[in-house]
Amino acid sequence: MAEECTHECSSCGKSCSERDLHVKLREGSSVKKVIAIVSGKGGVGKSLVTSLLASKIQNHGYKTAILDADITGPSIPESFGVGEKRAEAQGDSLDPVVTDSGIQIMSMNFLLQNENDPVIWRGPVISGAVQQFWTDVNWKDVDFMFVDMPPGTGDVPLTVFQSLPIDGIIVVSSPQQLVRVIVEKAVKMAGMMNIPILGLVENMSYVKCPDCGKEISVFGKSNIQKIAEGFNIPVLARIPMEESVSAAVDAGDIESVDNEYLDKAAELVESLLK
Predict the structure, then answer these.
(1) What is the pLDDT of residues 76-121, one digit of tens each?
(2) What is the pLDDT, as a whole number, of residue 14?
């Protein structure tokens, strides 16, 4: 690390955006672009968006990876059906778990004796673990790494934004009225850290009637377009609630899901390498 940070911002004479705190990958690892998937609250579908986007871009011929930064509540391994696997040590480093389609994943669940064991750690220890997922894992020729973030603007998001070379963030929200507050918190934090916002994804936008095809707004009318215009950022996707997607996640078969909802988001992410 270029300069030690205690995360006690009140005692620091510099703003985070003025400090170069990026940590290096271990020798032999390669990650070209890093995208963080964030939200101001939990339960809106960050892990789903992360999984679908990584799978879609992997299917387009790129090499993708997922760094699961939600240390105390990881759900990525189960979505890909690799919850029972464990990361293998290679000397002082770890190899990520690789899915059927070739996506490299590092998650706290891969380090636990039992995947159901709780992780009862304080913030600084959790932040240190996330940083080690970047520095101590053998990431092999990754084109796009997606960081599945825990909710909020606390220790882990700050560590990720400071320590990793984030190329952009995607904000995930839901249609409820409180979404503006959620988006605003994430947008303001990204602005403070000088990290570009690629756009918004609204999850659980609607349910499509299987008989007539009508869109039913279960959580009320969407305000995502108005909110996006207010912050001058694009809406990348509106994802409906679909039984088939839920079933694929429960079965650990998220890689089999192929829909068009995240096409625009994938195209934008892929353009970062062009």
Answers:
(1) 999 999 999 999 999 999 999 999 999 999 999 999 987 777 888 8
(2) 57
**Over the chain, what is the mean pLDDT?**
89
Residue 137's DSSP bridge partners are 94
What are 144's strand-pairing partners? 33, 64
| DSSP labels, the chain | --S---S-GGG-SS-GGGS--PPPPPTT--EEEEEEEE-SSSSS-HHHHHHHHHHHHHHTT--EEEEE--SSS--HHHHTT-TT--PEEETTEEEPEE-TT--EEE-GGGGSSSTT------HHHHHHHHHHHHHSB---SEEEEEEEPPSSSSHHHHHHHHHS---EEEEEE-SSTTHHHHHHHHHHHHHHTT--EEEEEEES--EE-TTT--EE-TT----HHHHHHHHT--EEEEEPP-HHHHHHHHTT-GGG---STTHHHHHHHHGGG-
Q: Among the listed ranges 2-16, 54-68, 99-113, 211-225, which one has the minimum average pLDDT value?
A: 2-16
